[in-house]
Amino acid sequence: MCPLLFPAGVLIMDKSFEFDYNSWAAKQMLDKERELSLFRKAEMFFDIIPSDVTFRNALEIGCAEGIVINRLRELLQINKCYGLDLSTEFIELGRSLNPEIEFIQATDLRIPFPDNSVDLVILSDIIEHIEDLDFFLKEVKRVGKAVLLKVPVDKYLWRKLISEPLGRSYSIGLNHPDGHLHEFSKKSCEKMFKELHFSVLNSKVVYLPVDHGKKNPLIRLRWFLDEKLKQIMPNFAHRIFGGLLLVFLSTGGNGMLKGRG
Questions:
Q1: 169-218: per-residue pLDDT in tens?
Q2: How large is the angle between the packed helices 67-76 and 34-47, nearest 10 degrees?
């Protein structure tokens, strides 16, 4: 059974856990650097899409106020864009700030679009929050032809061997402060896509800027090793220190349009 996403903004994962998404959303809106980071995210997505692919319409699930999908609309020259989100606060703000996007209030994990009707589905930092991920991704596959996905690489050696045992990282699960219910490595994502018959057209691991300001010697060592390993072995570093996985997928639907660029 898939979890219900109630319009009031409370995500019910099971009888023992509620994640107040509206309260989380309100805190996000106070972050002065958030808009710039979301612009960068949209541009990272743009960079992994082949230049000969175009889209007539797009849907972002978990769109917040629509910053990412609106920027992709501009970059990719998409005619019609939709944003689906749980938070009433985000939806209301999005309708004010980004009137070019048609916002839809989410009520459950079923996607309110006909089969094979969306050229591009955008999943940006969303799948780690979904309990019934198999159901959700099958819904994505049902409605979409192509998928842009971003997910944190939370399954890495430093976290498991050092950060979590020392209590410096939150364990993934029902009590995670950002509502992360799943952790992924690049390999586990690729396995999941294969099992659900998605085709990976392009993928890339990107890394967060190194924080040199920490005073704790262990944390300073972590960031020093992190920075050096990413310079020397950029295709391997995510296994040790994590990163952000960006993926462009085909669902096997009625083909993507060619012609951009």
A1: 555 555 554 567 888 888 888 999 999 999 999 998 876 665 555 566 76
A2: 40
* pTM for the full predicted model: 0.78
CA dihedral 65, 135, 54, 71 (to 10 degrees): 10
Helix (H, G, I), strand (E, B) or coil at 248: strand
Q: Please state, rounded to an integer, the average pLDDT across all residues of the chain.
A: 79
Alpha helices in the chain (DSSP H): 21-28, 34-47, 67-76, 88-97, 133-143, 157-158, 186-195, 217-232, 237-241
Q: Are 45 and 72 within 8 A, CB to CB?
A: yes
Spans of all domains in the chain: 10-207+242-258
Assign domain 10-207+242-258 to its CATH superfamily: Vaccinia Virus protein VP39 (3.40.50.150)
Coarse DSSP helix, strand, coil percentages of the chain, rounded to the nearest 5 percent:
35, 25, 40
Size of the chain, expressed as the number of residues it contains: 261
Check if the beta carbon of residue 179 is closer than 8 Å to that of residue 5.
no
DSSP string, 34-60: HHHHHHHHHHHHHHTS-TTEE-SEEEE
Which tokens hold the place of 183? Answer: 């952790």
